[in-house]
Structure formats: C-alpha cells, structure tokens
Batch of 2 targets.
Target 1
Amino acid sequence: MLDIRKLREDPEGVLARLRRRDPDLDLSTLLSLEEERRGLLHRVEELRRQRKQGSQKVALLRAQGEEGKAQQLISSLKGVSEELKELEGRLSQLEGELEAELLKLPNLPHDSVPSGPKEEKLLLRAWGEPQKFDFPPKHHVELGRDLGLLDFQRAAKVAGARFPMYTGLGAMLELALVCWMFQLHVRQHGYIPVLPPILANRTSYLVSGQLPKFEDELYHCEKDDLFLNPTAESLLVNLHRDEVLAEEELPLRYVAYTPCFRREAGTYGEEQRGLIRLHQFNKVELFHFTTPERSYQDLEALVGHAERVLQELGLHYRVMLLTSQDLAQQSAKTVDIEVWLPGQGRYYEVSSCSNCEEYQARRGNIRFRPAGGGKPRFVHTLNGSGVATSRLFAAILEQNQTPAGTVVLPERLAELLGERELS
RNA sequence: GGAGGGGUGGGUGAGCGGACGAAACCGCCGGUCUUGAAAACCGGUGAGCCUAGUGCUCCGUGGGUUCGAAUCCCACCCCCUCCGCCA
C-alpha cells in the first residue's frame, strides 16, 4: 500500500512512477475520494469537539446542582449527536471506498529498475555454461517417466491435470532437496527455520498483496474462508503483523518450507508439460524483515543465498533484473534466477527475489523502533525462493542426463540420496 | 463441537458511565551518585491523523443505548483452561 500523503502531495510524481508499470493507470477516482474525505473529516471533527465539550459541561453543571441548565444543554446536544451520526456514517463509507482503491495500487518501482515490457529484462550475470550434449537431450518428462521418478498419469487420476506425483527415487530426491536447502539456509546463512500453516486467512493475503486483486489464483476453502498457500511469502510476512520490532533485532531472516498451491488459470503451451507449471509444488522460501537503510544491500545477499543452492548442485543458471512492467504488485525491485533446461532449450525461473520496501509493512502495520529511540518506522520486507523444487528437479534431470538415458547425480545429492545414478 | 475464563500502551496488568489516553510495575531514554559499572534515587516515556488546535481518533472487531462508553447491551473474531472427538 502506498502512503496516501505521498499521493496527495505529489500526485503527478507518483502517477509517473506508477505508469512505468502500467501505462493505463489512473489515480483520479482515488484523488477525488481523498479530497471529499478530508472535507467531511473536517466537519466531523468540529462536531465531535462540540459534543465532547458539551458533555463535559453537563457533568460540571450537575456537580454544581444546576439540573435545569444541564437538561437544556442535553437537548441541544441531541441535535449535534444526530447530525454527527449521519456524517460519520458517510465518512466511514468514504474511507472504505478509499481503502479499497488504495489496496489495488501496486508498489512504486525502484529507480534502478529499467522501464519497459517483460521481454526487456536485463541479464545481470550467468554462472556456468550450458552443457554440450552429443545427443539430443531429453525432456524431464521422458526422463522422469522412463526412470520411474514421476508419474503424471496417476497423479491426474488422483487430483487432475498438472499435479505432481513423485515416485521411487524421485520421491526420495524431492524430499532430500527440500531438506538439504532448508538446512543450507539455516546452518550456513543464519536463517530462522519455520514450518508455517499452509492455510491462511483473508487478512494475511491482504497484507502480502495477494488480495484483493488476485483472488482467482488462490484455492479457497469457502466454509472456513481460508486460502491455500500459494507462496510462503504470504505467510511469513504476517509473522510480525501489528508488531513493533526493535532495530537491534533486525534484520530478521526466516526460511520456510511449504507446498504451494496455485490455480494457474489461463496458462498455455509448453509450460503445460511436466514440472514447469503445476497446481502444487514445493518451495523453500527466504524472507527478511529489515531496515530501509540496508534493504537493497540485503536484497543482494538474498539473491546470493538462492544462487548458492544452484552453485552447490553445479547447475548452470543466469540472473535477470526484471523490468518495471514485469514486477509483482508488491515489489519495488525483483531479481530472478533462471536455471537452464537443456531438454527444452530455454531458461526457467527457479527463484524470484524482491524488495517490497514498505508496501507490505504498511498493509500489515509492521514497524521497528529506531536504535536511538524515536517514533516507530515501517520495516522493509524482502522475499525470495531458495528455491522452488519442481523446476530444480527438472533441471537436475535434464542437465545431468547421459546418452544412455540415465541421470548422474551431482556429488552433493549423491551423498544425500545415497545413490550416484538414477537408472 | 460443549462449558467456563479472558482480550487494555513496547511488556505484565489495574480501571467497569463524566478531567481516563488510561494507575502501578517492568522495559526504554535522560539526570544525580561513582574512577567506571551495577544498585539506589529523581525526571521523562503509547500510536495515528491534519484542519496544527486548551483539535480529533484509537482499550479485540462491528453494531446499539446515552448529552457522554475502556466501562452498559447485542453479534462476531481470537486466546487460555476443562470435557468430547481425532492423526
């Protein structure tokens, strides 16, 4: 959520920045609502003052035994009270409308984010190189099926299309990956481990920015009005909702493992095959609560922590800076890590690391008290996958395949799984 | 699911129709004392809003009663204890 004051004080400036994301964005409704609200608030406050002072006078008159004067005052205050009631009703309606508008606005992109459409994302760096195969590399769906690691047909029988079923060593590998990544971030990067609930209430998703705009993406349990977790970001940001943290305890860094559920309405093409885009996948998520002064530094660190996963596994990847039009609603700046899938000849995102600055903190009222004392300030929140396993799984199969159609595991995984080769 | 108890500032917790934004304690900040620190003592210390005022809002949330509500009434949410069910 943006600061309404900023909008009021510099509507053109804010609009210009928002239009880097969405050239059609319009603020006129919002600004006129705010104008109206302020006028009404002024009148309401004046009436409240009258009522308050009058009521105090009633008490005073009674104490002095002036019952007659008190009664007179009471009857004149009835009118004030009635008018106030009506105006307050209109005010709260206006405030509701304003809030709804404000909740729909996306974050302002950071100055370092290039303007432009999705396709113009910037290559920041690459690690390793695409393997050279002297045979046509297979798609992970073929590898997974032939090696008995994945069974999409039976998954469809149980749940429907685009749900995963890991079998045999595939199931073992998936679990080993989750567990190892979790440990890596806890033991080596100093994250606090968390296993959160994977159903959460409306408020939680409102704070993360998932609601109100993207309700269609979520699985909803109507009876309880709870939503299945689409990313642990939504859960972790709510850990400190309505809290005032001490600056000394920042940055707070959490790592969570959760399954993630997304309805993925309206996707298409090659993404529909295999592990690329599923209704359910596993993800290890990294989340920081930090100060405005250091949040961009922390974003670098966060990306580094996610990259470490791929480096340890010896997987070739590249790091991309997203452009303004490709940012998620809550993000001010996002860096993606994309892993190479030779079976498909393209890169896929396995981690998306974002600085949401105070966007979520404002929605969730998450603040910190500065070390030297003084007023609480909003924290900055950062999130990043560290990393999503299904695509990682696919990359491991595709990047390590042999001409014989087997997969030779990288050393780290061979140790964990107790198997050198999937055959 | 049933019965009871409870949600108040950074924390614990008192207040249960009228100078109550709210006692006390803890914490925090400043001072005195001390070579320094601790202790002790003194003082300060909730958050938000713009219209910047002897201004307004906020005591779980939303309604209601009243000239006036943290306080009374209704509904809902959450937490705790006990019982039931259950991996």
Target 2
Amino acid sequence: MARVGLTAERLTRAGAELADEVGFDQVTASELARRFDVKVASLYSHVKNTHDLRTRIALLALEELADLAADAVAGRAGKDALTAFASVYRDYGRAHPGRAAATRMRLDPETAAAGAGVRHARMTRAILRGYELTEPDQTHAVRLLGSVFHGFTSLETAGGFSHSTPDSEESWTRILDALDALLRNWPSPPTR
Amino acid sequence: MARVGLTAERLTRAGAELADEVGFDQVTASELARRFDVKVASLYSHVKNTHDLRTRIALLALEELADLAADAVAGRAGKDALTAFASVYRDYGRAHPGRAAATRMRLDPETAAAGAGVRHARMTRAILRGYELTEPDQTHAVRLLGSVFHGFTSLETAGGFSHSTPDSEESWTRILDALDALLRNWPSPPTR
DNA sequence: TAGGTTTCCCTAAAGAGTTTAGGCAAATTA
DNA sequence: TAATTTGCCTAAACTCTTTAGGGAAACCTA
C-alpha cells in the first residue's frame, strides 16, 4: 500500500486548517483521514486520540500566535506596542477562527506550561514595560489585557457585535485607546 | 409503558445540571436518556436534536444569569452596581461552569435576539448610567465590559490564573477598580 | 544488494452517540 | 366509553472513536 507520509505534524497542520473551515469542535479523526485519503485507524499511530490531536492543534496555534506577536511588538513601545500586539490577536482570530478557538481550549497544567502560553504572558509583561506599573499591579494588568483580548475576539467571532452600530472595528480602536489611558493612569486600591 | 413526563423544559434543566457536572460539550442525549431511565429515541419527541438541546441550555443559562444580574443591580448605582453586576457573572461562572460555557455558545442571530442576551446588554447600559458616557462611547464601554467579564471568567475556569500569585480574586477586585476609574474618566479619541 | 528490522498503513471489529420510522399503550377529549 | 392524541417504545442505519493484529514498503547493515 502506497505510503502517504503521515506525521503528527502534518495531521496537526491539516487539523488546524480543518478547524478554520468547519470549527474547532468539528475537527474529527474521520474527516482528517478522508482528507489524507487514508483509513481512520492509520491516524492512531501518529496521535494518541482525538484529544491529543486537538491539544496539538491548540499548541500549534499558540505558537503561531506567539511568533506573530513577537514580530509585531519588536521595535515598538508604549501604546504603539499595545496596539500592534492587540491587533495580532484580533486579526488572528478573524483569519483563523478555528485555531483561535483552539487557543481557548482547556489544557492540563503541564501541557500548558510546556507550550507557548508562557511566551504570551512574557510578551504581555514586556508591553507593560512602557507603562509604569509595579507588581502586583502589573500582574493584574496582564490579566486584564488577556481577558479583553480573549473576550473581545471570542464575542466578535460569535457574532455578538454584528448587526449593530458602531461597527466592532471602531469599538476595538476606542477600547485600545481606553486601555492605554487606563494603563498610564492605573489607580491605586481605594480605601475600602 | 409507564410515562416519565419528559418535557423540553425538564430535559433542558437536567442538561444544564449535566453540563455543570461533566462539561457543556459532554452533554449528550444518551446520558440524558440514562438519567431519566428512558430510551434515547424518546428525547427526540421533545427536542429536535442535540444542537437544539444545547441551544435550550444556553438560553436557560442566559435567562438565569439575567435574573440574577437584575436582582443584584436593583437599587445600586455607580461602582456599587458595577461590582455587583460583575460579581454575578464571575460567581455564576464558578458555581455553574457548564452553564457558563453554554452562554458562550455561538447562537444564530434570531435565536440570540429572542433570548435574554438583549436583557444583558440593556442592564450593562443601565449600569453605565452612573457614569457620564454618551453614544457611541457608551456602546464601546458596553463591549469592553462584556469582553472583560466574558474573558476573565473563561480564562479563570480554564485554569489560566491558577498556580500563580496574586490569586485571581485579588485581580478581579483590582480590575473592577480599574474599570471604574476608566469609566469615570473615559478618554476622547486621540488625534491620530 | 540480499537479509533482517522497523515503520506505516491496512482490515476487522467492538463500543458509543445521533437520528429517523413506525408501533402500541396511556392519557386526554368528546 | 369510544376516538384521538400523546409519549415512550423497538428497530435500524449511520457516524465517529479506538484497539488489535497483519502485510508490505522503507530503512539499515553487512
């Protein structure tokens, strides 16, 4: 039987494309086998199971995203860096909805720690260097930015902002303006 | 054959509980049938298909959440209202992770429009009455708040903030402080 | 380059979920 | 009480997942 040259990597890449086409939760071993014109069982020599496959796709997406973000941030600082960084997330989410959904997959701690998630956190911190935040406020800010990027892109692709004015593009820029202002003027804890 | 008294509502409620126990994407017609001690096919007189079932769970969760939020916000204003409102989202997400995941499900536009999603948007706007924002800034702020609540709770339940200091509770309060400050001081668009 | 070894994809099969079609008895209505 | 509607059933087709074991292709190695 002719060998097709399956590898975990090729399956992962094809799975990522499939995810962008049909949605991350529709990524199925059967469909993947069909695309490689191969029997389903053959995949199981390369990936442990469907969960393993999805995890690989998630890690691939996180890696790609981290690479893009690193490029975007290089040579920029302050609001410029913030905007560039944020745009990478949003653009990626719109260009690759399936992969983006994959990045939101729950990973078990050690897998997450081994993946590019840490690079993301480090880059977010790097961006905050342009603002004068000290710990623990920096961590709070990192989490805020993560939440906004995560939440906005996920609501946007879910269609939450469509069919209403102003369009989401404008909200995005204005939200970044607001976040920039907030970071330049991060409040100290109020006396409770 | 003894009748169990299945209805779409009972199935939906049981499905919501199942979602909280095993995760929203593990909600299966078969498991539900098992719980009611009924054959799977019997569910299909009450619910169109699995997607329909999930949609109903999502709508139930949105409804519950809107009710809780309405209670929490009543009689409060300003930061007080903001905090109460935000807490409802976060607490709900921690108490009912499956239902919360359901609220993040992509709904087709008319279903979404018919559901409680609009109530959420209206309440968010009501909270912003305590801050002096005019359109279109109010819409941007609504979207920012939605993104943060959505993103934070989803990252938190995905375990994104665990095993690191400070704990997510503290970040949550400090992020609310920050958002309050931001809303009181929403920046006008910079000259670009 | 022939032999052995490893690798890769195959067939086969079992298990679980989804969904439709059609039937019979229980509940409701007249 | 008879007629109708409703609710749960059996049966069956289909899809996807996963494991076990087999044979041929690709790769060493002498």
